C-alpha cells in the first residue's frame, strides 16, 4: 500500500548532536527503510543549518543514519533562495561561513561579493581588531562593484567585522568607500536565512544561532539610524515558504518512487518549539486556509508580509496539487526542548517557554509553540506516526 504521508525531520537535536548521531536515529530509520535500505515513506531533512553544501549535509546524514540520503532530500535554511529569481542577476553581498560563494552560485546568484573580499577592498572599514589595521594608508579602491542586496546565510565567525561591513553597505547604498550623504531608506534588500536564536550541539546548554546575530544587526541598525531594519524575505524554519518547498520535494519523491496515492499528511519532527513546532503549526494553518479556498487570505495573515516571499509561496502552492491537508508537529526531548526524561502526558502542561525566542517579525502566539505531540525521541516519533496511519 503506497504511503499517504511523509516526514519532515529536523537534524540538530533530533538526528544528531554536533557530529554525534542521537542513538534513536538509526532505530527510527530501520523502521522507515525496507530490507534493501530504501525508504518506504517520503522523507525530507529540513534543517536551519546553512554553512555547508547540500551534498555535504546529505553525506553526513548518510553516515549518521546508515542509509543513502540524496541531496534532493535535504533542505538547508537557504535552499528556497533558488526560487527568488528576481535577485539572481543583482550584485549581492554574502555573509556567513563555509562555502558561501559556492552556495550562492548553486542557488542561481550570478554576482556575489564576500565579506572577506569587501574587507580586502576597503581595509579601513574593519577597525575593531587592532592587529588587522593597515600600517599605512592604502590607495583608494577603484572598480569595485556597487552592491545591490545582502544575503545573510548564517552566523559568521568574526561578528564585529560582518556587523560593521553590513551596516556600512546599508548606510552607503552599496558603496562603502563613499562618504555618507544621508541615510538611504528603504535600505538595500536583505534576504536572511535561519532565524534560530539558539541551537543544540554537544554542549549541555544551547548555543547562539543566526537569530542571535540578526538580533545584533537589527538593534545596531536601529540605534544608528533610528529606523527599523527590514527584510525582503526571512527563510528557513519557521517560514511557510520553507515548508511549502518541503511539501513540493515530498511530492516529487513520491512521484519518483511511483507511489500513486496522494500525500495527505506531513509529520514534522523537531526539537525546537520556536522554529520546528512554530513553523509546522503555522504551515498547518496555511493548509487549512488553502483548503477553504483562501490561500491568498492565508498569505496576507503572514506575520511578515515580505512581497517576494508571498510571490514564491503562491507560486509553489500553484505548482503543488494541493493534496496535503495537514502538517502535524512532533516535539522530541533530545535537543533544545526539555531535558528531563519524564514525557508530560499533556501538551498544554509542557509549554514552559515564557520568553519568546522567535524572530522579531513573527508574532508570538502561544498556540503555535504547542506541539501536536511530545515524545522522547525520533524513534518514538516515527512509531507514533505509523500508529496514526495504521502503517506496519
TrEMBL record:
Cross-referenced Gene3D superfamilies: HAD superfamily/HAD-like (3.40.50.1000)
Region forming the signal peptide: none
Biological-process GO terms, alphabetical: glycerophospholipid biosynthetic process
Any Pfam family hit: Hydrolase_6
Spans through the membrane: none
GO cellular component, one term: mitochondrion
GO molecular function: hydrolase activity
Keywords: Hydrolase, Signal
Domain of life: Eukaryota
Family per similarity comment: Belongs to the HAD-like hydrolase superfamily.
This protein's name: Haloacid dehalogenase-like hydrolase domain-containing 5
Gene that specifies this protein: Hdhd5_1
Amino acid at each position: 500500500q503506497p504511503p499517504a504521508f511523509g516526514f519532515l525531520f529536523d537534524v540538530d537535536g533530533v538526528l544528531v548532536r554536533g557530529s554525534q548521531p542521537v542513538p534513536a536515529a538509526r532505530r527510527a530509520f530501520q523502521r522507515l527503510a525496507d530490507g534493501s535500505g530504501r525508504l518506504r515513506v517520503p522523507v525530507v531533512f529540513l534543517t536551519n543549518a546553512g554553512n555547508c553544501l547540500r551534498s555535504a549535509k546529505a553525506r553526513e546524514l548518510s553516515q549518521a543514519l546508515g542509509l543513502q540520503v540524496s541531496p534532493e532530500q535535504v533542505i538547508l535554511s537557504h535552499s528556497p533562495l533558488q526560487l527568488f529569481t528576481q535577485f539572481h542577476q543583482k550584485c549581492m553581498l554574502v555573509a556567513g561561513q563555509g562555502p558561501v560563494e559556492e552556495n550562492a552560485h548553486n542557488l542561481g546568484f550570478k554576482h556575489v561579493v564576500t565579506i572577506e573580499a569587501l574587507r580586502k577592498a576597503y581595509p579601513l572599514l574593519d577597525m575593531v581588531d587592532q592587529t588587522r589595521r593597515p600600517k599605512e594608508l592604502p590607495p583608494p579602491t577603484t572598480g569595485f562593484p556597487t552592491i545591490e542586496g545582502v544575503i545573510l546565510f548564517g552566523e559568521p565567525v568574526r561578528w564585529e567585522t560582518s556587523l560593521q561591513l553590513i551596516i556600512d553597505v546599508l548606510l552607503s547604498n552599496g558603496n562603502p568607500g563613499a562618504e555618507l550623504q544621508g541615510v538611504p531608506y528603504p535600505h538595500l534588500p536583505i534576504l536572511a536565512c535561519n532565524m534560530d536564536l539558539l541551537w543544540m550541539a554537544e554542549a549541555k546548554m544551547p548555543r547562539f544561532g543566526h537569530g542571535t546575530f540578526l538580533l545584533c544587526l537589527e538593534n545596531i541598525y536601529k540605534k544608528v539610524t533610528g529606523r527599523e531594519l527590514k527584510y525582503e524575505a526571512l527563510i528557513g524554519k519557521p517560514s511557510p515558504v520553507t515548508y511549502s518547498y518541503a511539501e513540493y520535494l515530498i511530492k516529487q519523491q513520491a512521484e519518483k518512487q511511483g507511489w500513486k496515492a496522494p500525500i495527505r499528511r506531513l509529520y514534522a519532527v523537531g526539537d525546537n518549539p520556536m522554529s520546528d513546532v512554530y513553523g509546522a503549526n503555522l504551515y498547518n494553518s496555511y493548509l487549512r486556509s488553502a483548503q477553504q479556498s483562501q490561500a491568498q487570505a492565508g498569505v496576507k495573515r503572514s506575520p511578515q508580509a515580505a512581497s517576494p516571499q508571498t510571490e514564491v509561496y503562491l507560486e509553489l502552492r500553484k505548482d503543488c496539487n494541493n493534496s496535503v491537508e495537514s502538517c502535524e508537529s512532533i516535539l522530541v526531548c533530545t535537543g533544545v526542548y526539555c531535558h528531563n526524561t519524564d514525557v508530560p502526558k499533556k501538551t498544554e502542561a509542557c509549554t514552559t517557554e515564557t520568553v519568546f525566542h522567535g524572530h522579531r517579525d513573527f508574532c508570538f502566539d502561544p498556540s503555535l509553540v504547542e506541539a501536536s505531540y511530545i515524545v522522547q525521541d525520533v524513534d518514538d516519533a516515527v512509531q507514533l506516526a505509523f500508529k496514526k496511519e495504521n502503517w506496519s
